[in-house]
Amino acid sequence: MKPWLAASLVLAVSAMTAACASKPESGGASGGETTKENEKFTITAIDFRYGTIPPANGKGIEMINERFNVDYKPQYVVQSDYVQKLSAVIASGDIPDIIVMEGTDSNFYKWAKQGAFLPLNEYMDKYETFKLIPDNVRKAVTINGNIYAIQRYLTENYELTPVIRKDWLDNLGLKVPTNYEELKEVAIAFTKNDPDGNGKDDTYGMAMSQNINPHYGMGAYWDWNAWYHKNEDGQFIPGFISEARKQHISFLADLYKEGAISKDFALLNWAQTNKEFYSGKAGIFIGTPRGMNSTYMQGLVDIDPKADIVPIPPFEAPDGSKGFTSSAGYYGVIMLNAKLKDQPTKVEKILEMIDFGRKFYPLEERKPDNADFDWMNGHENNGYKIVDGNVQREPDEKGLSPFNYMPDNRMWAPNDLANGYSKEYPVELLRKLAAELETMHSETKHYINPMNAVFSETRSAKGSELDKFLFTEQTKMIVGERPISDWDKMVQEWMDKGGAQIIKEANEGMKENGYTEPQWK
């Protein structure tokens, strides 16, 4: 937007007239600042969508404009094209007021260091939902002391963790395993002792897919993705190359020999692996309180109405630790154009909108008589309906609610348990499992993975390639195509391909964050 120039008016009229006349146009980041609280700003944004893009003139936009006294102009791009589109926008210098990204990739750090984004430190404690972002999560968007983004919500502790068929355990007189020896015993028993009692040899232990997924690490100590262990130089290293991982791969190799892991796991995709478990073939898989598939679970119940699934709590590690790894604590980041620096009133208007969209409503308050919730979702029987006690929103392509358009529409819960995910599942077995997972996580410590708050240029450039190398070689070890005695040789290959530089960069970043010893929450 072009800045409004009033110099000629100042020369032509009195000072009072000039003061009134020199109000800036509402709009782009380059406009001047207003002193009037009711100034109507034009607010631009660029964001991505995985699904259908809502219409540019939907009812939800009208509602936002009316409530916040703005002219809101978001641009949405399909996720597959977003990085290319956003890069072109940033390069052009014609940057929208609001910029959304999926995560803190190399572009985020590059653009932040180049001065494209507005530092937000002074605002983080002024808005209720921003205050809830933990310090360890904020570090992921902090560069040289400046906080450059507002993170979108993701539960901290609800990562996927192992679950097991309790009815199969009962049928065989076994208990939920508490260590890897017991887990091996159970997985082999599920393979050889007819746990479903149908007289057929049609079951096995662990459902697994390509890239050794799930990895069945029973705590941060064995987590391939957690930077928990240290090398002989005192540097944190990825679990992927640790001695604990070596022992774990040996454990999986033993199970593979017994037929206790999906036979063709190296070729199975994720949908196929889900089918292995939910069709009643495998007895051990993974679960989480949020986002589980009700259709899959109903399919299992239809096959076996007596099916029962429970979480497997974390095992105590050799070093005495006990707990799973936490997530990054966010998914998606929202930045503001650095040119808004001289427009604090406009910045506050934008942050007011973002904060409102993140407002948390407990389950019992998600109903039409809650005015804010009802407005956010486009009003009952227009933007949403209440079906069997649950909110059923109209499709995004209709654009009927502010929810379809707000810069952030993810409620930021005061804690994971407050979400009450388990209460929303329509399948009884899934409600039960999710509730037990919620309880388990609420009673379990979680390891703060220091890598979540660190950026490594080499990891950004070579991480996928190096991960693929390790997955491939470790898969060979599981199926017997490469001896586990080659472990040190494999690690050295990884180091030579760029792993050593990643470790160096990662530990430099951890040191800057004050992270020198394992931390738990």
Strand order of the largest sheet: 2-1-3-12-6
Radius of gyration: 26 Å
Largest sheet: 5 strands, mixed
Strand proportion, as a percent range, falls in 5-15%
Q: What is the distance, rounded to the nearest whole angstrom, between the alpha carbons of the first and last residues?
A: 46 Å
What structural class do you assign from the helix and strand content? alpha/beta
User: Overall 3D geometry?
Assistant: globular
What share of residues is helical?
A: 25-40%
The whole-number mean of residue pLDDT values reads 93
Task: Provide the fold topology.
Blueprint: H1 7-12, H2 15-21, E1 41-49, H3 59-68, E2 70-78, H4 79-92, E3 98-101, H5 106-113, H6 128-131, H7 135-138, E4 142-143, E5 146-147, E6 150-153, E7 161-165, H8 166-172, H9 180-192, E8 204-206, H10 243-257, H11 270-278, E9 282-287, H12 294-303, E10 309-311, E11 323-325, E12 330-336, H13 344-357, H14 371-376, E13 384-387, E14 390-393, H15 428-442, E15 445-447, H16 457-479, H17 487-512
Parallel strand pairs: 1-2, 1-3, 8-9, 11-15
Antiparallel strand pairs: 3-12, 4-5, 6-12, 7-9, 7-10, 13-14
Helix pairs in contact: 10-16, 11-12, 16-17
Concise summary:
The protein has 521 residues and is an alpha/beta fold.
Description:
This protein is an alpha/beta fold and 521 residues long. Helix content is 37%, strand content 13%. It is built from 17 helices and 15 strands. A 5-stranded mixed sheet has the order 2-1-3-12-6. Strand 13 (384-387) and strand 14 (390-393) form a beta hairpin. Helix 16 (457-479) packs antiparallel against helix 17. It is globular. 41% of the residues are buried.
